[in-house]
C-alpha cells in the first residue's frame, strides 16, 4: 500500500493539470468536456484528501520533501509539503467546497462561449491549486507562493468579464491591496532567514530562542499583515 507521503503531491497536481488542460484546450474542447475535466480533477483531489485525512487521524503526520526549490550557498529551501492535523482539515475544506463550487459553476456559466467557459474553469482550477500550496507548504516560501497564486486568481476571477470597466477597477483594487500585504510577509521571511538560515516551519519553531521577544512580536505582526490586507482588499470591493 502506498505511503501517504508518496501520493500527497497528487492532491495539488490534479487541479494544476486541470488548469493546463482547460487553459490550453479551451478553444477546442466542448463545454461538457471542460466541465468534466474541471470538476473531475478537484473531485480526485477530494478523494485523496479523504484518504490522507484518515491517515493523519491514525497518527501518520509527515513532511514530504521532493526537490530543492532554492539552493544558494548555505540557503536551501525545499519544495516540501507538511501534512498534519490542521492541513488535513483544510485539504477537505478546500477540495470539498471547491468541488461543489465547480459543479455549481457548470450551470452558472453555461451561457458563456466554450473558450471563455474554459478560461473560467482554468482559473478556478488554478485557484484550488494555489490554495492547496498555501496550506500544504512545509516552509514560508511555498506558503508565500500559494498566497501569491491565490491573489493572482482573485484578480483574474474578479476581472473575468474584462470588457466591463467596473470589474477591471475592482480587480485592480484587490490586486494592489494584496501586494501591500505581500511586503510585510516578505520582510518577515527575510528576517527569519537571517536568524535561522532557512524557512522550514519545524526549524523555525525549534529556533525560537534565536529571536528576542520583540522580534517574535514584530515578525508575527508582519505575517499577519498578509491576511489582514487580504480581508481589506475584499472589503474594498464594496466601496
Describe this structure in words.
This protein has nine helices and two strands; from the N terminus they run αααββαααααα. It is mainly α. The chain has two domains: 138 residues; 81 residues. A two-stranded antiparallel sheet has the order 1-2. A hairpin with a 2-residue loop joins β1 and β2.
Spell out the key features of this protein.
mainly alpha, 2 domains, globular, single chain, 239 residues, two-stranded antiparallel sheet
The number of distinct β-strands equals: 2
**Helix percentage:** over 70%
Count of helices? 9
Q: Quick one: biggest sheet?
A: 2 strands, antiparallel
Overall structural class, as computed from helix and strand content, comes to mainly alpha
Shape: globular
Low-confidence stretches: 231-239
- Rounded to the nearest angstrom, the distance between the terminal CA atoms is 53 Å
Number of domains: 2
Measured on Cα atoms, how large is the radius of gyration?
A: 19 Å
One letter per element, helices H and strands E, the order comes to HHHEEHHHHHH
Spatial strand sequence of the major β-sheet: 1-2
Strand content: 5-15%
Mean pLDDT: 86
Amino acid at each position: 500500500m502506498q505511503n501517504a507521503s508518496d501520493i500527497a503531491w497528487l492532491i495539488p497536481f490534479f487541479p494544476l493539470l486541470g488548469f493546463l488542460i482547460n487553459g490550453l484546450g479551451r478553444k477546442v474542447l466542448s463545454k461538457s468536456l471542460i466541465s468534466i475535466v474541471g470538476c473531475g480533477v478537484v473531485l480526485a483531489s477530494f478523494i485523496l484528501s479523504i484518504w490522507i485525512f484518515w491517515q493523519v487521524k491514525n497518527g501518520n503526520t509527515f513532511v514530504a520533501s521532493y526537490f530543492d526549490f532554492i539552493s544558494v550557498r548555505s540557503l536551501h529551501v525545499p519544495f516540501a509539503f507538511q501534512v498534519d492535523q490542521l492541513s488535513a482539515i483544510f485539504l477537505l475544506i478546500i477540495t470539498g467546497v471547491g468541488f461543489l463550487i465547480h459543479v455549481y459553476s457548470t450551470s452558472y456559466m453555461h451561457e458563456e462561449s466554450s473558450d471563455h467557459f474554459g478560461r473560467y474553469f482554468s482559473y478556478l482550477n488554478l485557484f484550488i491549486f494555489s490554495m492547496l500550496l498555501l496550506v500544504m507548504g512545509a516552509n514560508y516560501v511555498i506558503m508565500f507562493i500559494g498566497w501569491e497564486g491565490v491573489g493572482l486568481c482573485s484578480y483574474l476571477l474578479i476581472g473575468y468579464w474584462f470588457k466591463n470597466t467596473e470589474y477591471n477597477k475592482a480587480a485592480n483594487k484587490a490586486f494592489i491591496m494584496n501586494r501591500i500585504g505581500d511586503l510585510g510577509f516578505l520582510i518577515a521571511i527575510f528576517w527569519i532567514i537571517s536568524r535561522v538560515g532557512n524557512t522550514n516551519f519545524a526549524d523555525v519553531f525549534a529556533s525560537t530562542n534565536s529571536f528576542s521577544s520583540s522580534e517574535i512580536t514584530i515578525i508575527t505582526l508582519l505575517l499577519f499583515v498578509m491576511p489582514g490586507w487580504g480581508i481589506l482588499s475584499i472589503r474594498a470591493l464594496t466601496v
